Structure formats: C-alpha cells, structure tokens
Amino acid sequence: GLSVKDTFEAFRTAGVITSLDDLSNNEFYQRLLELPEIDPEGSTARSLYLAALSNDYLSIDNANESRQKFLKDGMMWGVCGTEEGYFPLEDLHYIDSEGLPPSLLDQIAIISLPKKRGAKKIQTIFGLQIISKAALEQHVRQHVPSNESATDFEEAKPYFYLLRTDVKRPELERLRNLELVFCNSAQCEFIYMDKSYRADLQS
Predict the structure, then answer these.
(1) β-strands 83-88, 75-80: how paired?
(2) How far is Cα 130 from Cα 80, in angstroms, rounded to an integer?
(3) CA distance 137 to 196
(4) What pLDDT tens digit does each residue of the chain (203 aa) get?
(5) DSSP states along the chain
(6) Distance between CA 98 and CA 197 in Å, rounded?
(7) Which of 25, 50, 49, 53 is nearest to 35 (CA)?
(8) Model-level pTM?
(9) How far apart are the first and last CA of the chain?
(10) Concatenated DSSP letters for 36-87?
C-alpha cells in the first residue's frame, strides 16, 4: 500500500495540489473520487478523512459539480463484518454511539472513522448515513427473569425524581412509571431502516 507521503507524491506528480488548505471545494471532492484508484489498499484514506474533518477552512459548496458526483458515485474506505475496502457512500454508515448491537454492526458497512468526531460535520462533508441509538427501534421479545429483586431501585426512585425536577413533566412521568426487571437472558430485536436485527443477551 501507499504511505501518506507516497499518495501526496502521486498527486504532486499528476500536477495537483497536495495541501488541504490549498484545495478548492472542487479539487477536494475530485481527490476523494480519485482515491480508490490511487490508493486501492486504503493506506491513507483514514488520514485524509480525518484531515478534512479537522480542517476549519474547508468550504462546502452543495452545488459543486465534483461534490455532486462524489455524493452520487463516490466510495470511501470502511469495514463490513470481516471485509475491508471501499464501499459506495449509499452503503456506508458512521457510528456515533456506543452500545449498538453487534448483530447490526456486523451486517452493515461502517466508515473507518472513530466515534465522536462530529456526526453533523461528517454528514455535511461526506454525505454519510449516521447511526445512533435514537435511530433504532428496540424491542425485548423474550426474557427469562432472575430472582434478583428491584427493591433497591424502587426505593431510590423518589430521589431520582427529585433530582430531575428540571426536566419536562412527561419525562418525569416516564421516570415515575419506570419498572426495572432483572433477567438471566433476553432476546432483543433492533429495527433499523425497516430491517430487523436480533441480539441475544446473557447475564
């Protein structure tokens, strides 16, 4: 694979600008379109994506021709299960939350970027789909109760209620009616974009 230096040298040999600070909107998206061909092993893809996210001077022109082509036909480096490679943007997702079910994460293509890098900015620059817990519909389909008691939680609930008096009343009512159930195991279903994913949980 190519190093960052080798990739920039390839761009330089082709007569293009190699500093993100000097790239126009059109040139930046053109580089992203060319990257799978220049760096097929994805050696520098992650570094380029992170550099774009950390560059405060990168302007985004939604009407730009290269940007429109990238959003339609572009590919970025990611992972799907055990497979790494370039995936079409329409198939790629950015994960912005911890604790998402492995049964979901193993079946979708995920961009090679760390969490908490600014979901809105990532969506603005790269046009990726963002997955958070709020985007999932969650259901417990079956569970095996344990003998552990929720008495301590019920006794503490009035204090939780007092500490949350700054929130809206409907949320307080949900807290008041919240019931804690301990389980030895549970079968859960997660629905994302009309697809169902199963997760089996064990204590």
Answers:
(1) antiparallel
(2) 15
(3) 9
(4) 556 556 655 655 554 444 566 677 888 899 999 999 999 999 889 988 988 888 776 667 777 889 999 999 999 999 998 999 999 999 999 988 777 777 788 888 999 888 888 888 899 899 998 887 777 788 888 888 887 777 777 788 777 777 766 666 677 777 777 777 888 888 888 888 778 887 777 76
(5) ---HHHHHHHHHHTT----GGG--HHHHHHHHHHHHHH-TT-TTHHHHHHHHHH-TT----TT-HHHHHHHHH-EEEEEETTEEEEEEGGGEEEE--S---HHHHTTSEEES--SSS-HHHHHHHH--EEE-GGG-EEEEEEEEE-S---HHHHHHHHHHHHHTTTS-HHHHHHHHH-----EEEEEEEEEETTEEEEEEEE-
(6) 17
(7) 49
(8) 0.67
(9) 43
(10) HHH-TT-TTHHHHHHHHHH-TT----TT-HHHHHHHHH-EEEEEETTEEEEE
For the record, the structure tokens of 162 come out as: 């007092």
Q: Which amino acid is at 168?
A: K
